[in-house]
Specification:
Helix content is 71%, strand content 1%. It contains 19 helices and two strands.
Length: 474
């Protein structure tokens, strides 16, 4: 018994040290993932190309085909899963605690191998950059504290504001701060082919900038910050959506926000629990935002492309022509996917062989790459990721963010190529979770203050007593 008593204290001390080491490890993993998010903003595909890194062009060294942010997310992912104590327990906890996300990773790996076997290595980096990187990022970022996650939200907001300011400046000067690359061709060489200039800020493409700004808008609405600051940032993001010229991103964001606000307003009227702050925010938005948008559109170049293209233009026609590629598929193509060389030939056959034209629907691109068998696995996998992220957010705004992300991405080929859409969506969702405890903490504080006040009144004998009315029997 004496021997047992001597052994037990060191064992408890070891457990404490192990737990402390895990906390430090998880915080370090978050910091690496945060640095990855920052690099994703600061180093777009265009920036890497301008630095001499052959990131976007086909062929070349496969190591440099992955963004530095992907490597950082992978390192943070491995730290959380494989370096936690006891050794290897992180992997077991990951599969038990997050069955949807772990199944998603397995299914995406299957899709990557399936694509390589059937159509070759070309395009395999898409599965790592666009789909595996967000999952690894979630594991690394989720290891952080609520305070770290709230700092992530501010980093995202800050970079979005900087990107919007750059885009407005680019629109005024009609010059890209970071030269645009399409198929290894600098934008000056095909500038004459483009109808309208659009600033892209820190991003590789204006549509990527618009999509990320839309995600950040829903994250902003979840943040618990000063009301005037939130209103100013929300207005700035709307101006940014106009500046980037993304029609789908602007309309999707406005429609979802208006529908959600209308639902909350009507349900609040029915339940009679409307807050004065919410009603004031709605009134201010209705009074200020429409005139402001009209002034910006009519007196500046901001939003010029959106206003002048409120019709079926060449970009919209491409989205109809692209479906003609299905008429050229044989049975092998339908079942197992189309090889890149054959896909390029079919694009020429339907009139999409130019340097600035492509299939503009990621669902179609993934079907062409995987065929019916692999595409079924891909759809289930993507659904599992959306389900996991939505449950992680634990707030309607999280589901709105994910809905907007999929709707906006469906109007372009972003998720069919190397893309940051799901990467940024994951970062925004994790940042939103940093504000879950602030609501409950504030509610507990108010409840505690009420209990203290009630106790003080009781002790001082100040609690009001019922008044006996004349003629009453009590």
């Amino acid at each position: 018994m004496i021997r047992a008593l001597r052994i037990s204290p060191p064992a408890r001390l070891t457990d404490i040290r192990s737990a402390s080491g895990n906390v430090r490890l998880r915080k370090a993993a978050f910091s690496l993932a945060l640095l990855g998010v920052i690099l994703q903003f600061a180093l777009s595909g265009n920036t890497l190309e301008n630095l001499g890194i052959d990131y976007a062009s086909p062929g070349g060294n496969p190591i440099i085909k992955l963004h530095p942010a992907t490597y950082l997310a992978a390192i943070g992912f491995c730290m959380v899963l494989f370096l936690t104590k006891p050794s290897g327990s992180g992997v077991v906890r990951f599969f038990r605690a997050t069955p949807a996300l772990s199944t998603y990773i397995i299914m995406i790996l299957f899709c990557a191998v399936y694509s390589i076997v059937n159509v070759g290595f070309s395009g395999a980096a898409v599965y790592v950059e666009s789909y595996l990187a967000p999952a690894m990022l979630w594991v690394a970022l989720d290891a952080g504290t609520d305070r770290q996650k709230r700092s992530l939200a501010w980093w995202i907001v800050g970079f979005c504001v900087v990107s919007i300011i750059i885009s407005i400046g680019e629109g005024a000067t009609q010059t890209h701060l970071i030269p645009l690359h399409l198929d290894n061709v600098v934008d000056k060489e095909f500038a004459d082919e483009l109808e309208d200039f659009r600033g892209d800020g820190l991003f590789a493409h204006p549509l990527t900038a618009a999509g990320t700004t839309a995600m950040a808008t829903f994250m902003l609405l979840r943040m618990r910050i000063n009301g005037l600051l939130k209103a100013a940032l929300f207005t700035t993001f709307l101006v940014g959506l106009l500046s980037f010229g993304g029609r789908a991103a602007l309309l999707t964001t406005i429609i979802i926000v208006v529908v959600a606000a209308g639902y909350k307003l009507l349900s609040g009227i029915v339940r009679r629990d409307l807050s004065i702050g919410f009603v004031g925010a709605i009134a201010a938005a209705l009074i200020i935002l429409p005139p402001l948008m009209i002034v910006l559109v009519t007196s500046t170049d901001i939003g010029e492309r959106i206003i002048t293209h409120m019709y079926i233009d060449d970009s919209a026609k491409v989205r109809n022509v692209q479906w003609l590629v299905l008429n050229h598929l044989n049975l092998k193509d339908v079942m197992f996917g189309v090889a890149p060389d054959r896909l390029e030939m079919m694009k020429y056959q339907i009139g999409l062989g130019g340097a600035t034209t492509d299939i503009e629907n990621f669902w179609l691109l993934m079907f062409l790459n995987l065929g019916a068998i692999g595409f079924a696995v891909y759809v289930v996998a993507l659904g599992l990721l959306i389900l996991h992220l939505g449950r992680t957010a634990k707030h309607p705004l999280g589901w709105m963010l994910l809905l907007a992300t999929i709707v906006i991405a469906s109007t372009s080929n972003s998720l069919g190529r190397k893309s940051t859409d799901l990467f940024f969506a994951t970062a925004c969702i994790v940042a939103m979770t940093g504000y879950m405890s602030t609501v409950s903490a504030r509610a507990r504080t108010i409840s505690h203050q009420r209990r203290i006040g009630a106790g003080t009144i009781e002790r001082l004998g100040l609690r009001p007593t019922p008044v006996k009315l004349l003629g009453s029997k009590t």
